[in-house]
Specification:
Chain B: Belongs to the oxidase-dependent Fe transporter (OFeT) (TC 9.A.10.1) family. The structure holds 2 protein chains of 2 kinds. Chain A is α+β, with helices and mostly antiparallel strands. Chain A has one helix spanning 2-18, and strands at residues 24-30, 33-35, 38-42, 47-53, 59-63, 68-72, 76-82, 88-94, 102-108. Chain A has a single domain (24-108), classed as Sandwich (Immunoglobulin-like), CATH 2.60.40.420. In chain A, strands 3-9-8-5-6 form a 5-stranded mixed beta sheet, with no helix packed on it. Chain A has a 4-stranded mixed beta sheet with strand order 2-1-4-7, with no helix packed on it. The radius of gyration of chain A is 18 Å and the shape is globular. In chain A, 38% of the residues are buried. Chain B is 80% helix and 0% strand. Chain B has helices spanning 2-29, 35-64, 66-90, 98-124, 130-159, 163-191, 213-222, 230-258. In chain B, α1 (2-29) packs across α6. The longest helix of chain B has 30 residues, at 35-64. The relative contact order of chain B is 0.16. The chains are: A alpha+beta, B mainly alpha.
Chain lengths: 112, 259
């Protein structure tokens, strides 16, 4: 019985390990611009974007290509899960200041 | 800035205007007063202001996905109200029934709270910049005007029909809006990582781009995505199906009562 229980726990731990925390990438919003405006992330991997809005004004992170939208109030930060993405370029923009706040995520395979 | 504000506000207003005009038309067709709908709009604006005010705190809930979960709850809430509305009117429980009024009011309050919160937050960002504020305010007013006009147009389109046809048309639109709300809710859950993110099933961006005007209008009407995922499509279809089942079972229970 104990052996069986241990096996179950081991299998669970292994499967939890598969769902390990995704890598975190930071994007800053300052003066209605994204820094960096070009972010390279690994392809076929789920990543966590940490978007820090350093402006006093709110901004909405939006991307049609990534199917993402999130309002980030002034002087706060937000997390947005992205991917796993096929290799390629995925533009994003700030909906509140779209003229300046433009950026793109580039998903690259590790060997590229 | 002006054009940007017009587009931003219009996008938000269109979605809420759809829900409001559907119910406005329904009250007109069933010859009832519309006072309670105006009350719902006002309450929705108050709820929206509250949501916008507490958004920084709400965003931090659940380790940073509070906003997605709140939006999901709002969307599911509107969907349930719309489904309840369909059941009531299919089983011939029409106005002035209090329950019919309550589901209509709740749907409007929820729809307006979410859409207006974003607009209020956007405009409030310019409070320290009087120069930009002027163009943002005029742009927002134009956007609001176009959005409300679209709602009024839809309303007149519906009430121009004969009452029976109008009710059918309202039901069809309620089903379309319902599916779209659930599709968006699914998207929020994927963004929050509560649902797995999978590859898009198709890419129709070369036919209708989400950046284009038709794409934006289709988004407001039926949550058009050029690259939808399987879970979004499944939830969309299941929500439509559930509403159709509710309409049919409502009609069935009505026919049983008549027998």
């Amino acid at each position: 019985m104990m052996k069986y229980l241990f096996k179950c726990i081991a299998i669970l731990l292994i499967s939890f390990n598969c769902y390990a925390e995704p890598p975190v990438f930071e994007i800053l919003i300052k003066d209605h611009l994204f820094y960096p405006d070009e972010l390279v992330i690994p392809a076929n991997t789920k990543v966590k974007l940490l978007v820090k809005n350093q402006d006093a004004t709110p901004e909405e992170f939006e991307s049609y290509e990534l199917n993402r939208e999130k309002v980030i109030p002034g002087n706060t930060q937000a997390i947005i899960f992205v991917g796993p993405l096929k290799p390629g370029v995925y533009p994003f923009f700030g909906e509140f200041f779209p003229k300046t706040a433009q950026g793109r995520i580039i998903a690259k395979e590790s060997g590229d | 800035m002006l054009l940007n504000s017009v587009i931003l506000v219009l996008r938000e207003v269109l979605e809420a205007a759809m829900v409001v005009s559907l119910f406005m038309a329904f009250t007109t067709v069933s010859q009832q007063s519309r006072g309670f709908l105006l009350k719902a709009i006002l309450l929705g604006l108050i709820a929206g202001a509250t949501y916008a005010y507490f958004l920084p705190e709400i965003s931090n809930w659940l380790e940073g996905i509070g906003q997605e979960i709140t939006n999901t709850i709002i969307h599911i809430g509107i969907y349930l109200c719309l489904t309840g509305f369909l059941w009531l009117i299919s089983s011939n429980i029409v106005l002035p029934n209090r329950l019919v009024k309550a589901v209509m009011m709740a749907a409007i309050i929820l729809a307006i709270s979410r859409e207006s919160a974003e607009i209020m937050l956007y405009i409030s960002g310019f409070r320290s910049d009087h120069f930009l504020m002027q163009s943002v305010l005029s742009g927002s007013l134009i956007g609001l005007g176009i959005g409300v006009s679209c709602g009024i147009f839809l309303y007149h389109l519906m009430i121009a029909l004969k009452p029976a046809a109008a009710t059918k048309f309202i039901c069809v639109l309620v089903v379309v809006v319902g599916g779209s709300l659930m599709s968006q809710a699914t998207q929020f859950l994927i963004q929050a990582d509560w649902l797995p993110s999978t590859e898009p099933v198709w890419d129709s961006s070369h036919i209708i781009s989400e950046h284009s005007l038709p794409g934006q209008l289709l988004y407001a009407l039926m949550a058009y995505e050029s690259t939808p995922t399987l879970s979004q499509i499944m939830v969309y279809l299941a929500s439509l199906l559930l509403m159709l089942v509710v309409i049919i079972s409502g009609r069935f229970s009505r026919s049983l009562q008549h027998d």
